[in-house]
Amino acid sequence: MQPKKETVEYEIYRPSEMANFMNAMYAYNVQLKQQIIKGKTPVVMPLDLMKLHSAEMSNGHGRTPVWNSFINVFIEAQKSVADTLSNVALKERFNHAINNCLACHKTECMGPIPKIKKLLIQ
């Protein structure tokens, strides 16, 4: 008699729309960091940051009052990086945007904090 085979079902991870967008923002900011280090000034914001208001979030997460308090501040900070008319140093504008990411993630979703910290320009 053969032993009964157990059926194993695997759950495939499917990132939410928000997780995908956050990953795209991270990749964009990696590129921005490299451009800034090389002395280049970014002039375009290719991502539609307004998606942050509507993207489906991961299971169990929603837009909290804390999230809502951070999101518009982050959007403006991220847009300011490509603002060629700003009197604020580019490195400072970039780090300000990244620090906004960190501030929100310290309250909402702490997992990516070490990864986000690596974006800061020293």
Describe this structure in words.
It is built from 4 helices and no strands. The chain has 122 residues and is an all-alpha fold. Helix 1 runs antiparallel to helix 3 and helix 2 (65-80) packs antiparallel against helix 3. It has helices at residues 17-37, 65-80, 90-105, 113-117.
Compile the SSE list and pairings.
Layout: H1 17-37, H2 65-80, H3 90-105, H4 113-117
Helix pairs in contact: 1-3, 2-3
Summary of the model, kept short:
With 122 residues, the protein is mostly helical. It is 48% helix and 0% strand.
Short key terms for the protein model shown above:
single chain, 122 residues, mainly alpha, 4 helices
What is the number of helices? 4
Query: In total, how many beta strands?
Result: 0
Helix-residue proportion: 40-55%
Question: Whole-number average pLDDT?
Answer: 90
Query: Main beta sheet: strand number and arrangement?
Result: none
SSE order, one letter for each helix or strand: HHHH
* Cα shape: elongated
